[in-house]
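re: that chain from earlier
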Amino acid sequence: MHGSYSRGPASVKSGEPRVPTAIAVTSADMALPAQDERTMPAVVLSGLDQRPLEHALTELHTLTEQHGYLVVVCSQATADPVVRRLHTLRSLLESDRIAFFRPPELPPLGVAVLARQLRQLASCDLSPGVIASAGRLLTHYIHAGAVLGSVARLDRVPVGLKAHAKSWMPGSQFAVLAHPEPQLVRTGPGATLKGPEFNTWMLVARGQQQTQGDWVSGLAGRWSVHGLREVPLPAESPVWWGTGRMTEFCSHLADLSVLYQLVASVRQTTCHWCGLDVIGDRCVFCSATPPGHEPVAPRALEQRTPA
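^ sequence. v structure.
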């Protein structure tokens, strides 16, 4: 079935405009609204596990022919049948032009933010390998958490026995930071979480409990965020956090010039296996590790407000 699909890189004739690398998500609620007029639209690969295999195969083949390269960003809460279907499709296409990026530390709203940042970078003059590997670098600058009505089923952030016991008390609420450094506090006067040391924007997504948004608004003030915007809660968020009684939040860099400066300032190498330019210690497309390359450390940001 897959014999007719081409494996080699898409050819671009001299003088033709560059086609941006496609950034894909696995559901429409993970495709955040564009940050600016340059942000590339997300490719939504919805219902992959429910459609006939041949249809999904044709869709991915068409995308790689049109864009040359495809980066699929999904969370650890993405349903296993969807993840298995993605790997099956990539294997049948015999393509190393399709990359999967599934950051283990980020909850769904943080993953949606990261996908949008890659969509912003896709509009720039960056190679596909650099855009794909930029995801690991930009993850360092995302602060993602939630205010939860219960931590009884939270297994992605360390939770002590005392917090587990208190979570069964009526009216209990907990503020949890999942990334970059796990933190958990019981909400109340004076309770806070350690935030970024650089100015950011914050997104808020409300679940079943609406009152938690007030605490998040206070946190945004303590973190001195540049602005706060509300978006719908991703469907995967209750699965990731173990409860629907929640308000998820994510503090992030929004300015394209800052994102580009971060990525462009990191030393690039050429993958010895597939020949793509990459940053970091692993090619996201072919998974090869450049020999003798040191892991990329996140670069410190200056205290400033993005324009």
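The chain has two domains: 22-130, 143-252.
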